[in-house]
TrEMBL record:
<feature type="transmembrane region" description="Helical">
    <location>
        <begin position="12"/>
        <end position="35"/>
    </location>
</feature>
<dbReference type="InterPro" id="IPR036640">
    <property type="entry name" value="ABC1_TM_sf"/>
</dbReference>
<dbReference type="InterPro" id="IPR011527">
    <property type="entry name" value="ABC1_TM_dom"/>
</dbReference>
<protein>
    <recommendedName>
        <fullName>ABC transmembrane type-1 domain-containing protein</fullName>
    </recommendedName>
</protein>
<keyword id="KW-0472">Membrane</keyword>
<feature type="transmembrane region" description="Helical">
    <location>
        <begin position="51"/>
        <end position="68"/>
    </location>
</feature>
<keyword id="KW-1133">Transmembrane helix</keyword>
<feature type="domain" description="ABC transmembrane type-1">
    <location>
        <begin position="15"/>
        <end position="102"/>
    </location>
</feature>
<keyword id="KW-0812">Transmembrane</keyword>
Length: 111
């Protein structure tokens, strides 16, 4: 089933790889944020300002990575659905009565 699906979305594999990589960056960013938050709580007499900047940077990296992963994943999903819709419609159109092609061409505003 996966092989068959890849025949429809094979050209989207680079976007899937980007989605995976963005998810990896988001997860690493979340681990970094947890680590920095721990350092912030146990910093004691150290200056807190540099730790806060690192924490904010980690939050931004995690958020951008999560957004990019979601965006790329949804792009692939909706593109695959559109491609499958076109394939199914083409197969249904072949099975339809002979006058269907003429109706679609002559119907104003539908195409």
């Amino acid at each position: 089933m996966i092989r068959r699906m890849l025949t429809y979305v094979g050209y989207l594999v680079p976007v899937l790889i980007f989605s995976w990589f963005a998810g990896l960056i988001a997860e690493l960013g979340q681990v970094f944020v947890a680590w920095q938050a721990g350092r912030l709580f146990i910093s004691g007499s150290q200056s807190v300002r540099p730790l806060l900047w690192w924490l904010i940077g980690g939050i931004l990296i995690a958020a951008i990575g999560a957004f990019a992963e979601q965006y790329a994943g949804h792009y692939v999903a909706f593109k695959a659905l559109a491609d499958l819709r076109n394939v199914v419609y083409a197969k249904v159109q072949r099975l339809a009565p002979a006058g269907l092609d003429d109706w679609i061409i002559s119907a104003p505003g539908i195409c």
